[in-house]
Amino acid sequence: MYKKEIGQYIDSHKEEMIEDICRLCRINSEKMPYKEGMPYGPGAFQALEEALDIADSYGFTITNYDNYVGTADLNDKEHQLDILAHLDVVPAGEGWKETEPFEPVVKGDKLFGRGTSDDKGPAMAALYAMRAVKELNIPLKKNVRLILGTDEECGSSDIAHYYSIEKEAPMTFSPDGAFPVVNIEKGGLNGHFTADWEPSSELPKLVSIKAGVKVNVVPGKANASVAGFDKEVLTSIAADCEQETGVRFEMVFEDDLTHITAVGESAHASTPKEGNNALTGLLVYLTKLPFAKCPQITMIERLLELIPHRDTEGKALGIAMSDELSGGLTLAFSLLEVTQSGLSGTFDSRCPICATKENVLDVVKKNMEEKGFTLHNDSMRPPHHVDGNSDFVKTLLNAYESYTGLKGECISMGGGTYVHELNNGVAFGASLPGTDNRMHGADEFAVIDELLVSAKIFAQVIVDLCS
To answer: CA-to-CA distance for 132 and 452, rounded, in angstroms?
Structure first.
């Protein structure tokens, strides 16, 4: 029902939807320090204000939950469906070529810019789905609410605040994953570890390492400073190491000090194979340099033994595993800081349904302790699983098949979304199978036709679930 009308409406509002997405994507809404009335800083606050202003202008009833979350309601009837999207973004990062991160631009069939696919574009697709149903005067018996959060990338404390006030809807989907339906989200272990040692002044020496921007981002760059080396030694070994790792090494020489930047390729930590980890590449390089023997260098060598370059499955840590429903465990070494007397590091591991405290956390802790590292975690994030045979999921799949002509099926993902803690929540859209939006990387983009078909699918789902 209403497929023709929905399709015509969304197609006729294409340019308007793109401009609304661009309004949001021009705002740098990465998490910033708290300011009074702005729990995640001025960027997220501004993005929320802008999104609610857009929703208000289209006649929706809006509510602001203390600048953590904003909502737009389609009507005042019984609560049936929540659509959970987010307005915060990961940091801009390096390596953008198509445009500047917060200057969205259309090139061909794509819209480039930070947030276009994660998750401002899908959020607006959901709003336009609601707008289509509203302005087409399609009768509904129940309400759909669009929930717009501002802290999804950094722990989802915004949604925790919202659900401390409001009840979960009977059904929830988040357009923050991929089509068809993501009914399984892996569990996780963000392993934080440290080590300490006696400093050494012997040359040549490692002065420091600083790598990573966020735990859920594979580092595209990593920095180190060394002292006491000849330029020829550093550049010769760098050339060999680049051939081995695919990571490039840039150097700035300053008297006896050399500043090294390893340049790899960033990626989302849930799909570490799609990047080339500059941090582990840097460690490979450093372990090849002829440093004076000292505890610091010994610990760097041991660390690389535990998490080798391109080991994205946790093999060396002893935790590689997989199951039929949720796939394999993934591992990304994402943060590291090394000083003269110690280090602090964090890896991001996405764990399948078969993972437990005993076969993951306890194994990592034991293996790290044997090499002198202390793992500080005592628990893991459990996986999320919704029955793929439920009427709710079947309705989503039917709408997807109707508008795309593609087979609808349930899939598993490593990335966690807003629905991870909900009883009956799945990720649904907004990219089609085979599309790599470069989410969390440079030149993030959304395919415009995929945003349009997403809006149509979402509108159909609203009609089917709320009529």
So the answer is: 12
Q: Is the pLDDT of residue 417 over 90?
A: no
pLDDT digits (tens, 9 = 90+) for 374-400: 999 999 998 999 999 999 999 999 999
Q: Buried (b) or exposed (e) across 198-213, using 16+ Cβ within 10 A?
A: eebeeebbbeebebbb
Q: State pLDDT tens for residues 196-244.
A: 999 999 999 999 999 999 998 999 999 999 999 999 999 999 999 999 9
DSSP 355: -
Ranges of H-type helices in 312-447? 362-370, 391-404
Query: Could you give the CA distance from residue 328 to residue 315 in angstroms, rounded to a whole number?
Result: 11
State yes or no: is 73 an active-site residue. no
pLDDT band at 268 (very low <50, low <70, confident <90, very high): confident
Catalytic member of 152, 185, 265, 443: 152
> How far, CA to CA in Å, does 80 sit from each of 164, 189, 463?
18, 33, 11
pLDDT of residue 439: 86
464 has catalytic annotation: no
Q: What are residue 174's phi and psi, to 5 degrees?
A: -120, 120
Cα(207)–Cα(218) distance, integer angstroms: 23
Cis geometry, peptide bond prior to residue 204 (ω within 30 degrees of 0): yes
Can you say how many angstroms the Cα of residue 355 is from the centroid of all Cα atoms in its chain? 21
CB 133 within 8 A of CB 74: yes
What is the arithmetic mean of pLDDT over 54-65? 98
Going from the C-alpha of 113 to that of each of 50, 103, 335, 363, 391, the distances in angstroms are 17, 6, 25, 40, 36
- Residue 25 pLDDT > 90, yes or no? yes
What ranges in 120-230 are assigned the alpha helix state H? 120-135, 157-163
Q: Are 415 and 270 in contact (CB under 8 A)?
A: yes
* The amino acid at 321: M
Structure tokens at 1: 């029902």
Which runs of consecutive H residues, i.e. helices, occur in 326-379?
A: 362-370
Pair 339, 197: CB distance under 8 Å: no
> Which of these is catalytic: 30, 50, 82, 88?
88
pLDDT at 416 over 80: no
Q: Is the Cβ–Cβ distance between 381 and 447 less than 8 Å?
A: no
Q: And the tokens for 438?
A: 């470069």
d(CA 440, CA 214): 10
